[in-house]
């Protein structure tokens, strides 16, 4: 690693040392001896960082990458280059100041964790290693010199304009940022109040005072709600700043980030499709997000992102250009599926309404009448929600790729290559049997492992697999001889 990383490691260890150091100073009464012990602790941390840096090396040997650590016991990790699924390069703030980066290697064998991490290589070395590792993983050794001489071939598929960052507040996850920050501050106050100097009892007293003044508590909640689009939009912009999707030497490369610049590479040969996702607010604005469906990819929800919020037409154009288009209309599901969506969206609130009427009549409390009104309002809202859920259902096949779509508050359409389908599963609950529908799941050796067409008719459940993979079902559907 670069020796500059020695300026980062001690700082990175400080949070874990802060409380012990403060404890030493308090116990020692801030005497000269206590300061000496604290300085010894900081010095020990620096020495540990130097030893760890000096005893860690990496090397590409033939068709494998070896990382070696020999601080106390010798450890050698070997990663075959042909198993590498992706190489990510990120630059946290301190690394960017020093011209360093973090290179993570994913083989898909470790779930959501990377297989190896080189923390503290220079930006130039990270890009060189990334190019070498991905090229060697994708091509035989014999073709390396020619490929290296030709240099990387790069084509920008899309650069997301900065004005599209205004779509950020439409993404539900980012909207909750103010509440997450407030919750974290409250938790910090109750957990570390004494150590931070204002006392846990003081934090508890503030909470009790706010609870005793509900109007002030309501004001705080309203302020957090008002802050949602601004703080959420800011966080979204920080994570997705200058988003670029490129095609480079057989890999899809997604680059993004303002403070922590990150580059994620996905081998095109292992991409089996894509998933288009939108929520209610995003749908009204006509924007969607996109993820790649890739075999052997760890942490696919983060590493597989192809696009942040972009206009729907742009998303389908980009995914079609980068992976392949889907060229067929989605087939509707039977009307009984609509009835099931409406029943599930309305019936629970009607039950609450009936229970509220009974309790209001028995107790005479106004609270139950308020609950009745709320339940009826939610039941009314459930009607368009159920209809939208039904309208979102669909499945189809264009001869090359199949697609399934479902959901309303979070609608998802998965487009998967036919060659990626490894099996079919039919699932039918007791209620589905009564309604004559079932859930058809296409087993895929990539992404989530399976994608569901919900509440299809029994005829569709039998006919769709026969259409997509006829050779699998032909022996079972052929008429008996004679």
Automatic annotation (TrEMBL):
Keywords recorded for this protein, A-Z: Membrane, Transmembrane, Transmembrane helix
YdbS-like PH domain boundaries: 53-130, 401-460
InterPro entries xref list: UCP026631, YdbS-like_PH
Domain of life the protein comes from: Bacteria
Record-annotated membrane-spanning stretches: 12-31, 37-61, 172-192, 212-239, 342-361, 367-387
Coiled-coil positions: none
Pfam families associated with the record: bPH_2
Protein name listed in UniProt: PH domain-containing protein
